Design the sequence.
């Protein structure tokens, strides 16, 4: 093991992938999470394993990241995925006209596609709107939002990672512009203690700006909530997307015996204060039923909101138009604060790639040349976290 101790803040999917990558490269690593693992955005997303098709026209950097990481996750964490494929469905003239740009974008991003006639589509998914014009099949899938990070946590834990839940960072140990650790409050005992490290990685997603502010640093994050609605029943087996530019209620993800309709988009200043607008809930039913009419009368199970950690400064586009790519920030370069690195943006699908980029920065800052091997190593079963 290397003589370096790295502290990771945030127990969601990104933090899980970061601590896995760190321990695989030989670092001593400790992760602190203020609540339970995956209790933030990770535990609330709709569970779409992105093919990248959703971003192939207007956000090709994100699309390429998604298709590349989609293929890697299929190899390293198959127990957390349902490889049920996806359909982009054209219902209106406008949808059908969008197909040309969509297919061209997918080709440019190396996303496999298969164009289906209405007859072929309805043979695959009989409960789709019978007025559909065409559909395009892509390699989407379904993610178990809890099991996928647990694969990474389990593998890291078996390599000696120290994973601490209900441990909230309330400040940084900092002198002369150099971060040397964090001040932690243990919510189980209500005690506070110092945790020292050689570098700190902020992997708190939508909370990244609040965390960096404690170190007199900044990161341009726009928390962008979206509402999701789960209804009882599985009305199709494939992931369904509306064949148009990203909009409200245009994804339906089958999750076990539920169907999750998503999502809306707005921006907030505080990711702990999202709200759950009633009109957004009704919009999920309205737009979801345009693809699958049965959804309109499906039994309601739950509604919730989750904050996307989108990269963008205040005053920029309001959520929907912001890129879904990720970025790693070295706060020595950005704010003159040494010893602190932030990773944010991205998707659940791209967590491994986000971690690789982050740990590459960690290695560079410490003058180390250690290659990443997380693309090849099959992760331990998620159950191994408890064994």
Sequence:
């Amino acid at each position: 093991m290397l003589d370096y101790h790295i502290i990771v803040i945030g127990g969601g999917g990104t933090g899980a992938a970061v601590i896995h990558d760190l321990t695989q490269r030989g670092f001593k690593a400790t992760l602190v999470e203020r609540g339970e693992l995956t209790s933030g955005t990770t535990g609330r997303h709709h569970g779409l394993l992105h093919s990248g098709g959703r971003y192939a026209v207007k956000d090709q950097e994100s699309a390429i990241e998604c298709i590349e990481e989609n293929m890697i996750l299929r190899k390293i964490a198959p127990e957390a995925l349902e490889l049920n494929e996806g359909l982009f469905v054209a219902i209106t003239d406008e949808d059908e006209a969008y197909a040309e740009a969509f297919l061209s974008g997918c080709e440019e991003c190396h996303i496999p596609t298969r164009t289906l006639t209405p007859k072929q589509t309805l043979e695959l998914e009989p409960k789709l709107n019978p007025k559909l014009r065409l559909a395009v099949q892509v390699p989407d899938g379904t993610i178990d939002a809890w099991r996928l990070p647990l694969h990474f946590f389990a593998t890291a834990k078996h390599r000696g990672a120290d994973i601490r839940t209900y441990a909230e960072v309330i400040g940084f140990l900092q002198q002369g512009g150099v971060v040397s650790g964090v001040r932690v409050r243990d919510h189980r005992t209500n005690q506070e203690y110092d945790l020292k490290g050689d570098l700190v990685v902020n992997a708190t997603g939508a909370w990244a700006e609040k965390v960096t502010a404690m170190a007199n640093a900044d990161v341009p994050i726009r928390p962008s909530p979206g509402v999701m609605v789960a209804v009882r029943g599985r009305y199709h087996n494939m992931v369904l997307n509306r064949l148009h530019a990203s909009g409200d209620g245009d994804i339906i993800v089958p999750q076990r015996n539920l169907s999750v309709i998503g999502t809306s988009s707005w921006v907030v200043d505080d990711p702990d204060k999202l709200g759950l607008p009633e009109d957004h809930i009704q919009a999920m039913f309205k737009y979801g039923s345009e693809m699958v009419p049965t959804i309109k009368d499906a039994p309601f199970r739950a509604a919730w909101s989750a904050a996307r950690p989108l990269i963008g400064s205040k005053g920029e586009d309001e959520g929907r138009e912001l890129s879904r790519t990720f970025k790693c920030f070295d706060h020595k370069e950005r704010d003159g604060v040494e010893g602190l690195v932030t990773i944010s943006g991205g998707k659940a699908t791209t967590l491994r790639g986000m971690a690789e980029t982050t740990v590459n920065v960690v290695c560079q800052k410490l003058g180390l040349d250690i290659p990443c091997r997380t693309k090849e190593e099959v992760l331990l079963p998620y159950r191994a976290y408890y064994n």
Notes: The first helix runs from residue 13 to 24. The chain has a mean pLDDT of 95.
